[in-house]
Amino acid sequence: MMKQLHKQTCVNHRREDEIPTSTQSYSPKTLKHPRSIPYIFKEQRFLFILVGILIGSAFFIFQPTLSRLNPSTHSSIPTSIYHRHQDSSSGSSGFASKGSFPGRIPAAIGRKRLRIVVTGGAGFVGSHLVDKLISRGDEVIVIDNFFTGRKDNLVHLFGNPRFELIRHDVVDPILLEVDQIYHLACPASPVHYKYNPVKTIKTNVMGTLNMLGLAKRVGARFLLTSTSEVYGDPLEHPQKETYWGNVNPIGERSCYDEGKRTAETLAMDYNRGADVELTCGKRANDGSCRWQVRIARIFNTYGPRMCLDDGRVVSNFVAQAIRKQPMTVYGDGKQTRSFQYVSDLVDGLVALMEGEHVGPFNLGNPGEFTMLELAEVVKETIDSSATIEFRPNTADDPHKRKPDISKAKELLNWEPKISLREGLPLMVNDFRSRILEGDEGRGL
């Protein structure tokens, strides 16, 4: 009996525990704290992505396109890195130095950006051409074997996303997808092309053949930089493009002279080929074949980045005068040459490439100087006390050389703007700094 009462009591206690008291009959809900901002970003990230896409799309839809910019704005922007200083108080008629230009808009805006190959682009002329093409917004691939080219000529472009440098010899084929090819690769000074004459003629013939093949394969426009040396020791003065020349085919200089003549023949044969338009593979919007050839015959050129001791008369005179050495004149000094500043040549090459005429075109300054007159200009510019030393003349040295540029004036709207007395001080400044720094590097 006592056990039953105890069990009953325990059961009653458990029931009392299970029944809530009146004080526990109401319990308010706990207030939820607001979710943190990181939590919201995490949970709603897809919504934010969608909103961002919509905002970006609206921006590009309503943003005025570049093609609607005022054309006069573009025409006022210089497209060449070589321009005259308009400030007369500067005391010199120079050109902008290499490097970038703050606030400058590339000229490629509003037109298709081109992919361009420049063979020999690490050389004297080639590096200046590369600067111009980069400054207008194109993509440039330089091909050079550095036989005469110098990396210092291009070091200011390293890191530029539109610049690429390939160490390669054009005697060997190369495959690239490009729109234009400027073929400059070849030793251009007597010291260099006489050093290895077989290599020189191989570069002129095989190198040109390979680059022409590449141009035809990908439908690229091709420009050959030939030379006034194709006229040899001319019997016509001044020389027109129609003059066939007077060249010694077996002389010491013939590896260069005849090599360039052969390169011109190859270029014209490729251009005249009956199957060119059928096999070029790429045509312009009007259905015409994009693949075409251009030929430039370059006369004596001078300017910054020339090799200090390449045997050419301007660089020889300038380097010797700066070093306080006698200026070397070969023969009687009455031979004549015409000298153009490098920026004028670069402008001519670009005008020829962009034009509609094959050529050949003479690109040179018709101002004519004897070697003695040139020596006097160098003395006036550098050192009035400089002396002249006469030596026997070299073999096959032309007596006269002066371009007739009537064709370039008429069809390319091109003519040189920089006189010898304007351009020479700029070259002297470059040579003086390199000589003082002990830079005896080579350049094309």
What's the quick description here?
The chain contains 14 helices and 13 strands. The chain is an alpha/beta fold and 444 residues long.
Question: Would you mind describing this structure in some detail?
Answer:
It is a single chain. With 444 residues, the protein is α/β, with parallel strands linked by helices. The relative contact order is 0.11. It is built from 14 helices and 13 strands. The radius of gyration is 36 Å and the shape is globular. The strands form 4 sheets. Strands 3-2-1-4-5-6-11 form a 7-stranded parallel β-sheet, with helices on both faces. The protein has a two-stranded parallel ribbon with strand order 7-10. Mean pLDDT is 80; it is low at 14-23, 64-108 and 274-284. Strand 1 (115-119), helix 5 (124-135) and strand 2 (139-144) form a beta-alpha-beta unit.
What structural class do the secondary elements suggest? Answer: alpha/beta
The N- and C-terminal alpha carbons lie at a distance of 126 Å
Identify the strand order in the major beta sheet. Answer: 3-2-1-4-5-6-11
**Strands, total number:** 13
Helix content: 25-40%
Number of helices: 14
Number of self-contained structural domains: 1
Q: Identify low-pLDDT runs.
A: 14-23, 64-108, 274-284
Task: Give the C-alpha Rg.
Answer: 36 Å
Beta-strand residue fraction: 5-15%
Give the CATH H-level superfamily: NAD(P)-binding Rossmann-like Domain
Q: Average pLDDT across residues?
A: 80
